[in-house]
Amino acid sequence: MKIEKLPLGRLQTNAYLAWENPEEAVLIDPGDETEKLFLWVEGAGIKPAAVLLTHAHFDHVGAVGGAVERWGIPVYLHPQALPVYRRAAASAARWGFEIGQPPEEPLVMLAEGDLDIGPGFRVFHLPGHCPGHVGFYNAADGVVFSGDVLFAGGVGRWDIPGADREVLAATIRKLFALPPQTVVYPGHGPPTTLEAELETNTYVREWLGASS
């Protein structure tokens, strides 16, 4: 699988392109800076087949409308993310940001299990940071797109509406049932591996009961 990353917007949210076949490429979390996104995607010779959202916080959905309009593609998200998705522009404004409200159509609801589009992903429901948060796992390549539940050296915030520390801790334990060599592509910052986070990430070590 080929993967390209582009941090976008003031919060430097990672947008990803992932594909085996360029005609079935998926665009994950197109957060902002629509024109920059267009140049990046089309410069790679890609016309994405779909937008996949790990979750619907405003910094992950700001360029969704532009992507849908330009390429005529569906948006995949978990049904529990819909209320957050529908409030995205208003939520951004409360934090001093401005985004276009992402479109209501065409939406496709995600559920746990194999995804019928893109490079062979399995969808995992990973709540705790945001309702309807999911991850996209490819076993053949040993990679997972973790959104905002796990970062290099950190985990997602649980002090915001819709978040819950204990639920997030359970999600981390679920995520770490994957093979330790799994490469993690997070919503912000550099990639890491589950093995590296188990060794160095304080939150992960606490929630998994790792010995010091």
Helix/strand order: EEEHEHHEHHEEEEEEEHEEHH
Mean pLDDT: 96
Architecture, CATH level 2? 4-Layer Sandwich
Major β-sheet, in short?
A: 6 strands, mixed
What is the global morphology? globular
Q: State the secondary-structure class.
A: alpha/beta
CATH class bucket: Alpha Beta
Count the domains: 1
Terminal Cα span: 36 Å
Helix content: 25-40%
Kindly report the spatial arrangement of strands forming the biggest sheet. 1-2-3-4-5-6
CATH homologous superfamily annotation: Ribonuclease Z/Hydroxyacylglutathione hydrolase-like
Number of separate strands: 14
The low-confidence parts are none
Residue fraction in strands: 15-25%
Number of helices: 8
Rg computed from alpha carbons, rounded to a whole number of angstroms: 16 Å
CATH topology: Metallo-beta-lactamase, Chain A
Structure in words:
The protein is an alpha/beta fold and 212 residues long. It has one domain: Ribonuclease Z/Hydroxyacylglutathione hydrolase-like (Metallo-beta-lactamase, Chain A, 4-Layer Sandwich). Helix content is 28%, strand content 25%. It contains eight helices and 14 strands. Strands 1-2-3-4-5-6 form a six-stranded mixed sheet, with helices on one face. A six-stranded mixed sheet has the order 7-8-9-10-13-14. A hairpin with a 6-residue loop joins strand 2 and strand 3. Helix 6 packs across helix 8 and helix 7 crosses helix 8. The radius of gyration is 16 Å and the shape is globular. The protein starts with a strand and ends with a helix.
Features:
about 210 residues, alpha/beta, Metallo-beta-lactamase, Chain A, 6-stranded mixed sheet, 8 helices, about 25% strand
